[in-house]
Amino acid sequence: MQTLGEFKLPNFFNYPPYFTLQPVKDTREKQIQLWKELILEYCRTHKIFVVGLDEDFPLFSNPVIERSLSHEAREAYLSALVSEGRAEWLDKSHRKCLLLWHRIQDWADLIISFVKDNGLEDSVMTVEEIRSGVESRGTELHGMDRTILMRALKHLEHRGKLAIFKGTSADDEGIKFSI
Amino acid sequence: MRRRPGIGGLQNAAAARDQYRLLGENVAKLRTDLMKEQLATFRSQLEDFARKHKNDIRKNPAFRSQFHEMCAKVGVDPLASNKGFWAELLGIGDFYYELGVQIVDICLATRPLNGGLISLEELCKLLGQRRKGTREAISQDDCLRAISKLKVLGNGFEVISLGKKKLVRSVPTELNKDHNEILELAQGQGFVTVDEVQRRLSWSSGRATDALETLLEEGLAMIDDGHKDGRRRYWFPCVSPVSSYTASESI
């Protein structure tokens, strides 16, 4: 089984035609589905939040079989993830993609669990502390992408679970939980 | 017998011919009777055998295959009907029925990847994986028997021979001789190019392209434009299953 580090690559990754966008509809749909799953799973395992289409993202090429995904193919697969709500384009020219291997709702739920687990129901924290503070170590929140974190927090603010306010330092915001 | 001239002689000859004929018929009948008796004996011995070795027949594919051959020789088909002696004794009808259902399942599941054509080898492998829980091993012979029963139900299943290999077709796609020749050619490396087809089969480029495009449209082929020589390759998942593409090194 070929691996990228510890990650087990699926068999289709070693089959050259999968690196060419297929013209026949049914075949292409199957191809896109396989790639979507692979990209999402890989990003989840490695906690990758942003993928740049012109980058050397490890899944975009397989040196063993000497094949690489064309720009068109990369965009096709990521667009498919966007359509499914599992990713978002960060720019109009579709060069950078934000991966939501957890949906915003899932992240919001994780924040709530985190707050409850640490008895922070009525307390105040900075945004940065949520993702890099001592309490976050060992949880999924640790090291999470800031854009996604803000979106999840705003989602919770909408539901009245917390309030976001400007903090003492110019560049960080604070959260007052009311869960 | 000495021939005698005259009418008497002719009458004798006719009588002799009649007698020979009767004798011949008797001998034939004797032979048939003997054979029928032998067959009946053999059949009952076969039944005894089946009873005694019921477990072996169920568990051992090689043994099972030889048992089938023995049955065929005496004109017994254990799969002929789900009722009756054989089915009850061995439960073999159910065994092949269950296998048939699993085969249909696997073919349907792999259809998006191989266009409805799967190698017998791959099918057996997947069946083996699926049946890991049971202790009944499956051979390619078992698969073929189950598929032949499926055909009787009109499921559109068919086994195609490609050189030494066999492919199982589960879609109504008719493969003509041109398509078959390309598939055989593809067995070498798992893919072909238009040039190669033209060269090796001595076809015009039009004929090669047409055949390849049809196979592509039917979902039996996939294109690969990624080789550095810039030539398009047509890969055939049914002759080189994707599942066989595992590398052992890690990066």
TrEMBL record, chain A:
**Mind listing the GO biological process terms from this record?**
macroautophagy; protein transport to vacuole involved in ubiquitin-dependent protein catabolic process via the multivesicular body sorting pathway
Keyword Cell membrane in the entry? The reply is: no
Under what name is this protein listed? ESCRT-II complex subunit VPS25
Keyword list, A-Z: DNA-binding, Protein transport, Transport
Q: What is the organism field in this record?
A: Perilla frutescens var. hirtella (Perilla citriodora)
Instruction: Name the domain of life this protein comes from.
Output: Eukaryota
The family annotation for this protein states: Belongs to the VPS25 family.
Entry GO terms, CC: ESCRT II complex
Q: Which Gene Ontology terms cover its molecular function?
A: DNA binding; protein homodimerization activity; structural molecule activity
UniProtKB/TrEMBL annotation, chain B:
Per its UniProt record, what InterPro entries does this chain match?
ESCRT-2_cplx_Snf8, Snf8/Vps36, WH-like_DNA-bd_sf, WH_DNA-bd_sf
Say if the entry is tagged with keyword Transferase: no
| Source domain of life | Eukaryota
A single GO CC term for this protein reads:
ESCRT II complex
Cleavable signal peptide: none
Q: Keywords, A to Z?
A: Protein transport, Transport
Q: Which Pfam families match?
A: EAP30
GO terms classed as biological process: protein transport to vacuole involved in ubiquitin-dependent protein catabolic process via the multivesicular body sorting pathway
Task: Quote the Gene3D superfamilies the UniProt record gives.
Answer: 6.10.140.180, Winged helix-like DNA-binding domain superfamily/Winged helix DNA-binding domain
The answer to whether keyword rRNA processing applies is no
Please name the PANTHER family in this protein's record: EAP30 SUBUNIT OF ELL COMPLEX, VACUOLAR-SORTING PROTEIN SNF8
Membership in a protein family? Belongs to the SNF8 family.
Subunit structure, per the record? Component of the endosomal sorting complex required for transport II (ESCRT-II).
In UniProt terms, what function does this protein have? Answer: Component of the endosomal sorting complex required for transport II (ESCRT-II), which is required for multivesicular body (MVB) formation and sorting of endosomal cargo proteins into MVBs.
Q: What is this protein called?
A: Vacuolar protein sorting-associated protein
**Gene source species:** Perilla frutescens var. hirtella (Perilla citriodora)
